[in-house]
């Protein structure tokens, strides 16, 4: 599973930590990638950061999600695979 975290030019530590914690709690093996280059963020169709994509599906955009919400999303997407 690939989890991409899209960030703006500054900050982002909080959302990355939330993602890491959610992956840990879910017990799912996932590769976490961060994308902060504006061109790459735009190519991905992200209009508001921070944003999180799991397996190319935008899960959240424009806010830092709750850890439990991400655990649920990770678990649900893993079941679909």
Automatic annotation (TrEMBL):
<dbReference type="InterPro" id="IPR005243">
    <property type="entry name" value="THIRX-like_proc"/>
</dbReference>
<dbReference type="InterPro" id="IPR036249">
    <property type="entry name" value="Thioredoxin-like_sf"/>
</dbReference>
<feature type="domain" description="Thioredoxin-like fold">
    <location>
        <begin position="3"/>
        <end position="72"/>
    </location>
</feature>
<dbReference type="InterPro" id="IPR012336">
    <property type="entry name" value="Thioredoxin-like_fold"/>
</dbReference>
<protein>
    <submittedName>
        <fullName>Thioredoxin family protein</fullName>
    </submittedName>
</protein>
<dbReference type="Pfam" id="PF13192">
    <property type="entry name" value="Thioredoxin_3"/>
</dbReference>
